[in-house]
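Please go through the protein record below and see whether the fold suits the sequence. Record follows.
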Amino acid sequence: MAVDINKLVNDYIDGKDISDFPIEQLENNKYFMERVLNVSNDYKMYFYCSNKVKTDTGFIRFLIKKFNNNLDFLCNCVDYYTKNTDDNDNIIEISIIMRNLLKSKNDDRYYQYELMRNVLYTALRLQVEHAKYFEKDDYEFQSDVGLGFWYVFDLYKNNKIVTDFYAKKMINELFIDDYYALDRILHKQYQSLEELEEKGIYNALIEAIRIYDEMLSDYICVNKELLKDVIVKYKYVSKRWDKYVDVNESNRFNILGGEIEDYFDEHKEKGILSEREIVTIVGMKYGIQDKLVQYQLIDSLDIDIVNEDKKNYKDVLNHSFIDKMNYNNIKNIIKSNLFYTEQVEEINEHKCKILNIENYKKTRK
C-alpha cells in the first residue's frame, strides 16, 4: 500500500502514533526531516533529527536556506556539524556561507567563521608550497601551475562558492594584502597612468594575474565581479600614482644610501679615491648624479671635482686594484637597487604547485 507522505509528516508533527515506520527510522531520514521542518516551520524539530542527519552537508545547506533569519539557531547547527565531521571540502563551503550571513564584525561568530575558512585556505596553500619545494627546479611545472588555482579548480569545479572564495583569496594575495602591492605591479607594467587607462583596468588586472597564474586569469575573465575589491583599491592607486613614484624613489635611494654606507664600513682598505668620489663616478656613469645630490648621497661639488679631471680618475680606476674593486661593487649595489625589475625572483615567491603532482604530470604528457 502506498504511503501518504503528507499524512505521515503531519502525524509526526502532531505527535500522533505512527505504526507503519519506527520513529527512529523517520528521524534518520534526511528527506523526511526536511519535509517536517518545511511544513511545521518550527526549527525545534531539528533537535529530533539523528546524528546522521545533523551531519549531512545537504541537510545543513537546507537549514541555512530555510532559517537564514535565525542566526543563533544556525550557528548551533553548524557548530555541531563541523565538530562531528572531517569533510573539510564541505566545511569550507559552510563556513564561507555562514561568514557571509554574519555581516556584523561586532559579532564574535563572524570571526569564528572567518578564521575557520582562512585556516582551511592556509592549510591548502601550505600543502601546495610543500609540493612546490620538491619540484623547485622544474620551472616549467611552476609556470604552468602558477598560484595553484589549477589544483583548486580540479577539487572544487562543481562548487562555485568555494572556487570563487579561493580565487578571491589568491587575488587578495596579489593585490590587496600588501598595501602597495597593486601600486608595484601596475607601475612595473605601465610607465604612466594614461597608458594604463588606455589599456583598461580590467584588462590590465587580468594580464597581471596571468603573470602569476594563467588558469586563475582565465577564470577571472568570466567572473569579473571577483575583482570588485581590487577595483575599489585601484581608485586610490590612480589618485596617488605620481606620489607613489616619488615615495618609491625616495625609499629606494634611502635604502641605497644605507647599503653604500654598510659596504664601506665592511671594506676598510683605502684606495686612492674617496668613498664620495667612487659614488660620484658611478652615478655619472648611469646619469643619476643629480638624484644622488637630491638625496644627499653626494653634493654638487663632488660632481664638479670629477668633471674637472675625468682622465685622472679613469687612470686611477685602471691601475688601482682597490679602487677598481670598490667601483665595481658600488656599481652593482646601485644597479640592484635602482635598475632592477621584479621579474622571476618576485614572481617565484608567489608561485606554488599543486599537491597532486603525479596527476598533473600525466596531463603534461
Confidence is low (pLDDT under 50) at residues 341-365.
